[in-house]
Amino acid sequence: MSLNRTDVTAAMETALSKVLDRPVTELSGQTRLFDDLHLDSTTMLEMLMELEDSLGLEVDPEELEADDFETVDTFTDFALTQLEPRSAA
């Protein structure tokens, strides 16, 4: 299954709505996750777990960088990289 930016953003809106217990819609690429949506480390982890379920996203906590969670765009880039089919070496 190949996902694109729109798929990831839609999944983020669904996950964030569930985690924050309020509707989160119309995210833009420039929406800042911590500053605009007021996420903290706990809600960010909860969002990641939701995305693991909905997208099959697998995240190694060792690979997480703060920059990846700055905006919707930076997180989408990170998620798409994680979702790329891994070729067997």
UniProtKB/TrEMBL annotation:
Pfam families: PP-binding. Residues 6-83 form the Carrier domain. This is Phosphopantetheine-binding protein. It comes from Streptomyces vinaceusdrappus.
